[in-house]
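dumping this here before i forget
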Amino acid sequence: MTYLSIGLGVLILVVGGELLVRHSSRLAIGLGVSPLVVGLTVVAFGTSSPELISSVYGQWIGKGSLAVGNVVGSNIFNVLFILGLSAVVTPLLVNAKLLRIEVPVVLALSLLGFGFAYSGTISGVEAGLLLSILIGYTVWLVRSSSGQPPDETSDTEQTHWGISTGLIFLALALVVGGGQLFVTGSVQLARTFGIEESVIGLTIVAAGTSLPELVTSVLACLRGEGEIAVGNVLGSNIFNITGVLGLSGLVGAEALSVSDGLLNFDMPIMIATAVICLPIFFTGTRIDRCEGAVFMTYYVGYVVYLVLNATDHAATASFAHAMLWFVVPLTLLTLGAVGFRQFGAEAAE
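structure:
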């Protein structure tokens, strides 16, 4: 029943997330919102709704570490795996606006979240501040959008909008039910194998609730809409830190707890993934396949370390040292290649 609950929860989450993204995007575009803003808000927030429901429900039943682990793990998964896989599918063009604003915003919010969690808990006041940042960011983003006013619509188009609105509410119901099933099954699985709930949140829950982002980003790349894919990832990370942590910290009788493992290892990894984006994004206007492959390699190494550490495997320390000596040179080599490519492109102009 545990595996059935997890599997059914994932299925419902994917179906609900897909419906939510498809029809929310249709409404947003019909209202004249630009594709970039759609990716950063409607698509990003919609695909992050599973993280929101799962984390809020986890905190509601007293599993705060699972809620925080879900956010941290999802942000790591979004950048390293989803952005990496999307770039492997097709090189991603990076919008200049993302370079100037969203990438630094993700890094700043990652540092802010770590600062709030450093005491071991995220208080209601801190959670409220995170939620306020999300509201302010969204209002500013919509107002600064260059999208044009929507054209006049026919009665048939308005009817389609009405259907989409109804399907959005149906999608939200599916996401709520799927999130509850998934969290319940994951907690039971953690107890069965004696694995810390934060580790389950960082891996199974994080990857499962990020499936809508994965599907949406890869499909966007296949359709030649890489801008939406990158905006989806960055917007989802912004929403996870501000909206998911914010709302999760406001529910339940106690403050949102943060385990030592999250503080000492996983949250710094989340910050590092945001830092890695800075040089790769700023030294070029796209993310190539080789850079995407590097991101995915990082994520595989991260998950392997989590599993080894959770099971107290004898190879944990050796693997950590090997990854250190592998990751640093690989990062420097990749950044060097990116810089050389950009230099060559500028010299050719």
